[in-house]
Amino acid sequence: MKHYTEIAQLAADKGIISASDVEELGISRNYLYAMCREGLLERTARGLYVLADSDVSAHFGLAEISKRIPGAVISLISALNFHELTTQIPHEVWLSIPRDTWLPGVAAPSELNDSLCRSELLGFQRRTPDASIQAHSKP
C-alpha cells in the first residue's frame, strides 16, 4: 500500500504520469497495472495514467501529447487557442519540434478529448529561445 500512496501522490502532483515516472521512484510499473485494475488509476494512452477521479480540463489532449513528446512545443493555432487569443478551434494539435527529434508513434489523444483528432508536426532548425516558451504544470 505504501507504493499505492506514492503513485497516487505523484499523479496528484503531475496530473499525468508515465511508467518511467514511477520507475524513477524505484517502484515497479506493475503497480500501475494493479492500480488500474482496482479503479484507482485510469490509463489514458499507452504508458500514460491519471487518477481515476481527476478532473480533466479541456486542454487535456495538449498535456497528453506534451508528455508523449517532451521536447515538443505547442504552437500556432493550438497555442493561440490555449491562451484564448483566437476564436478558431484547431482540428489538430500543432507542435514545433527540432528536426532531429525522434518521434514516438503519436496517435490521436485519448478518448477523453476526441475533438483533437490528429497532430501536425512542424520541424524547425534550432531551438527557439526558452524565454519565449511558457511551461504549464497540470492539465
TrEMBL record:
Limits of the AbiEi antitoxin N-terminal domain: 7-52
Short name of any one Pfam family annotated for the protein: AbiEi_4
Protein name: AbiEi antitoxin N-terminal domain-containing protein
Taxonomic placement: Bacteria, Deltaproteobacteria, Bradymonadales, Microvenatoraceae, Microvenator
